[in-house]
Amino acid sequence: MTMIHLSPWDLGIASILIFLLAGMSWRLRLGVERRVLIAASRSAVQLTLVGMVLKLLFAQTNLALIGLMALVMLSVAGFEVMQRQKRRYRGGWGYGIGAFSMFLSSFSVTLMALTVVIGVEPWYQPQYLIPLLGMMLGNTMNGVAIALDNLTRQAWESRGKIEARLLGGQSWETAIQDIRRDALRSGLIPIVNAMSTAGLVSLPGMMTGQILAGSPPMEAAKYQLLIMFLISGGTGLGSMVAVWLGSRRLFDDRQRLRLDRLADGSKF
Amino acid sequence: MAALRLKAISHPLIRPLDLDIDAGELVFLSGPSGSGKSLLLRAIADLDPHQGEVWLGSEARSALAPPIWRRRVGLLPAEPFWWGDAVGEHLPHGVMDAATTQDRIGGWLGILGFERDVLDWEVARLSTGERQRLALIRLLAQGPEALLLDEATANLDPANRDQAERLIDDYRRTATAAVLWVSHDPVQRQRLGSRAYTILDGALVPEP
């Protein structure tokens, strides 16, 4: 099977749907036509740029350039995690906890996949590294953002209960353990759900892409399975690191609950 | 058992203050609302960042692990929170296993007019007054050597208030615990008779 190339004309036809949607929004006064158009143009520009950058990267296999690209991806993901917090850690922590835990989980799992599982030569071959890392980051980003948001939100709301436990002579780890467990669970639920319905409701995005691009379905299914396992491991590891660091940061060295280390994110 | 001594305790509302409470002594504290009474108690229990040092007998707070300090210097907040479903879950781990502590807690429950099965009750179904009285028992079950009470009897009717006062007084005598009690009730202060201070403009002023 070979890949059927899309012409600009093909994409133009598909984009009529976007204009139709915007028109409908205008006609029904939904008020989202501007946002639809802006988002669609953004995705067009971003994907074209990424396509061009990847073309350049693939042609060179230069470790420094690939590292730079990975760094950009990580910093955007870290920013996104911070954006999604209702209550953010003040100072560098708001950015640092999310970015560090994603770095630790996504990079290590991607590295493992490249060297041990897929066995690419050299391991940093961008055609494999960049999409894999992107998928890892995108999904750990979700898990980490949800878990951290849950942690800080619940800690904020349960101040009285946490302090009551501290006053009862419990350590900070015991006092926050229920909230911690809950936050971690909430971070893992999306990926667990995705795994259990994979293929039944819809084909996962990557598998769809591979099949459209001409891969045999069984090969696509195997790759999808590999990716899902990697993503689950990465999301679990990332959420755990984030929740551990985040809950530690909520207490100081005298085991006091320090909600003053959180800022109301909606103010920014 | 041990005296409670505050050395240069200060936080944003309170200028550095010293206070010595002997073992088994009761000291009342009052002051206009917002004067920092509750914050002072929280500072002593080490719940908020602040300056100063507190001694329990010959032991400095900074030398003790925070959970141990908070167990030994027990704070009863004005609004006690409950984190579990049943009352009994909030008792320190293992106290209901030993027969001696079981009897003690049973006795306290009796003084405050509860049956022992109250430990199986759901917290959500308790009234405000019941919660306040049970929070006192929960605190005493920790076996604190000093007590910090924030409006411990404010929500109680006179009969229950008298019983709670009696329980606190009994505990203070038998455990020779130092007690610092924030109370707005001048009659209560007269009734229990003790040293009393007011917080005015961030300073401790002895009451006549």
Structure characterization notes:
- Chain A has helices at about 10-25, 35-60, 65-85, 95-120, 125-155, 160-165, 170-195, 205-210, 215-250; strands spanning about 85-90, 260-265.
- In chain A, helix 7 runs antiparallel to helix 9.
- Chain A has two domains: about 1-60, no CATH class; about 60-265, no CATH class.
- With about 270 residues, chain A is an all-alpha fold.
- Chain A is globular and about 70 Å long.
- Chain B is of the alpha/beta class and about 210 residues long.
- Chain B has a domain at about 5-85 and about 145-205: Rossmann fold, CATH 3.40.50.
- Chain B has a six-stranded mixed sheet, sandwiched between helices. Chain B has a four-stranded antiparallel sheet with strand order 2-1-4-5.
- In chain B, a hairpin with a 2-residue loop joins strand 4 and strand 5 (about 60).
- The longest helix of chain B is centred in the C-terminal third of the chain and has 17 residues, at about 160-175.
- The interface of A and B includes residues 165, 170, 257 and 258 of A.
- Chain A: Keywords: Membrane, Transmembrane, Transmembrane helix.
- Chain A: This is Iron export ABC transporter permease subunit FetB.
- Chain A: Its main location: membrane.
- Chain A: It is a multi-pass membrane protein.
